[in-house]
């Protein structure tokens, strides 16, 4: 791959992996490895049991009931907490369960600020809670000039951030927004699904909680739906563990086992996916019929400078707009052989998605248009296939819309 491609900043890719990322790779590769005492199993056993024997009358052992805690789930939670640099993680049955877990802590009437262009499912849940008057909600464009003033005036209890955003890869300045939230005493949750702890560590900028849909790159094989919340402090960790048990938002041990298995190879998968995404973004940018490419690795991406500062990778997601709208999007997608038309992202397989009719179909039209999700927008989740094959496939798509 050429190192000098106009419009692209490859510094991150060529510099990677850094020393600290090597160490994180070790944490991932060795997660729960060679720790089993009974038989010396190198890979940990899967504990499916729903309940555990008491030590004696009235004296539980470390685990008593799998909703409250399970050894396999603990192994995953400990690995996620270490990778994010938090104190404690709670593994949930889905990414939306992780969102639900954090929103459940809000008292009736609490004020929540959230991104106007966040993941459609999160947007829907928050809007519905607000419609039912359970919370007060402000959807905000954190990049707008008046954002700080509006956030401060709203006096939120919780500020929700998602960066890069889904699907347009807008970058939110974590340091800046977290300082606004701190100034009004709000807690901050950051959805880090798109980058994983290998691409961004929100606790370094002062976040209180990191949220993941581990369905995506962390598991990475598109065979588990799951999520996690990681807490910055012990007290916040205790609190989310209490709520997860109370609400039953606990991840099944089998899902935790599978996710732990995927997690061990996360850094290598990411490296391959990110390098390909960078290359494909450059190709699309130069292509006829493409009106815009949204990828933070492009030098003229509005969030490029912030991405360089707060991320250690540009990620494996990109979106682009076809000039000829919906008809072009359909023709493009129908001519592809490799990119699969499916929701989700972060798996070993490359996917293409039409946000307007898929991931963001639940958003109302006005919100969708405000978020910039038009008919010609396509989102790519770049996987681990050979780059040449991916390029060939995109060329097929581009030929169909020319
Ligand atoms: N957050 C983001 C950024 C997502 O993309 C998704 C799902 O696509 C979720 C949260 C919800 O996760 P799940 O589908 O695992 O419930």
Notes on the protein architecture:
- There is one protein chain.
- The chain is of the alpha/beta class and 402 residues long.
- Helices cover 39% and strands 14% of the residues.
- It has 15 helices and 12 strands.
- The chain has helices at residues 11-15, 19-29, 71-84, 95-104, 120-131, 147-154, 174-183, 196-199, 234-247, 253-263, 266-285, 304-310, 325-334, 365-370, 387-401; strands at residues 88-92, 110-115, 135-140, 158-162, 187-191, 209-213, 227-231, 290-294, 317-322, 340-341, 351-353, 377-381.
- The strands form 2 sheets. The protein has a 7-stranded mixed β-sheet, sandwiched between helices. A 5-stranded mixed β-sheet has the order 8-9-12-11-10.
- Helix 3 runs parallel beside helix 10, helix 11 (266-285) packs parallel to helix 15 (387-401) and helix 13 packs across helix 15.
- The longest helix is centred in the last third of the chain and has 20 residues, at 266-285.
- The radius of gyration is 21 Å and the shape is globular.
- The two termini are 26 Å apart.
- Mean pLDDT is 94; it is low at 1-6 and 13-17.
- Pyridoxal-5'-phosphate is lined by residues 94-96, 119, 121-122, 162, 166, 191, 193, 213, 215, 225, 227.
- Pyridoxal-5'-phosphate binds at residues 94-96, 119, 121-122, 162, 166, 191, 193, 213, 215, 225, 227.
Order of helices and strands: HHHEHEHEHEHEHEEHHHEHEHEEHEH
The class by helix and strand makeup works out as: alpha/beta
Shape: globular
For the biggest sheet, the summary is:
7 strands, mixed
């Amino acid at each position: 791959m050429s190192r000098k491609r106009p419009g692209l900043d490859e510094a991150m890719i060529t510099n990677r992996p850094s020393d600290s990322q090597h160490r994180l790779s070790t944490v991932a590769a060795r997660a729960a490895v060679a720790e089993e005492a009974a038989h010396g199993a190198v890979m940990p056993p899967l504990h499916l049991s729903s309940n555990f024997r008491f030590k004696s009358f009235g004296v539980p052992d470390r685990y008593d009931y799998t909703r409250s805690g399970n050894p396999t789930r603990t192994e995953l939670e400990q690995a996620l907490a270490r990778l994010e640099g938090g104190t404690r993680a709670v593994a949930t049955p889905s990414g939306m369960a992780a969102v639900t877990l954090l929103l459940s802590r809000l008292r009736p009437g609490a004020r929540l600020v959230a991104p106007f262009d966040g993941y459609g499912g999160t947007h829907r849940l928050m809007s519905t809670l607000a419609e039912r008057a359970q919370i007060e909600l402000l959807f905000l464009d954190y990049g707008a000039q008046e954002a700080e003033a509006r956030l401060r005036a709203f006096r939120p209890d919780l500020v929700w951030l998602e960066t890069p955003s889904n699907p347009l890869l807008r970058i939110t300045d974590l340091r800046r927004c977290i300082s606004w939230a701190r100034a009004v005493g709000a807690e901050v949750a950051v959805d880090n699904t798109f980058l994983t702890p290998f691409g961004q560590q929100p606790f370094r900028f002062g976040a209180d909680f990191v949220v993941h849909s581990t369905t995506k790159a962390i598991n990475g094989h598109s065979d588990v739906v799951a999520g996690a919340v990681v807490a910055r402090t012990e007290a916040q960790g205790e609190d989310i563990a209490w709520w997860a048990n109370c609400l039953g938002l606990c991840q099944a041990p089998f899902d935790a086992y599978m996710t732990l298995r995927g997690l061990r190879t996360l850094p290598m998968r990411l490296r391959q996916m990110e390098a390909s995404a960078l290359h494909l973004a450059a190709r699309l940018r130069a292509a006829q019929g493409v009106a815009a490419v949204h990828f933070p690795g492009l030098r003229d991406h509005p969030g490029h400078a912030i991405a360089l500062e707060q991320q250690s990778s540009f990620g494996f997601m990109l979106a682009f707009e076809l000039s000829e709208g919906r008809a072009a999007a359909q023709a493009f997608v129908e001519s592809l052989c490799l990119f699969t038309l499916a929701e989700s992202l972060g798996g070993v397989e490359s996917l293409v998605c039409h946000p307007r009719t898929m991931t963001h179909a639940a958003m109302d039209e006005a919100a969708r248009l405000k978020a910039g999700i038009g008919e010609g927008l396509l989102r790519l989740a770049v996987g681990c296939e050979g780059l040449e094959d991916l390029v060939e496939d995109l060329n097929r798509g581009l030929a169909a819309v020319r």
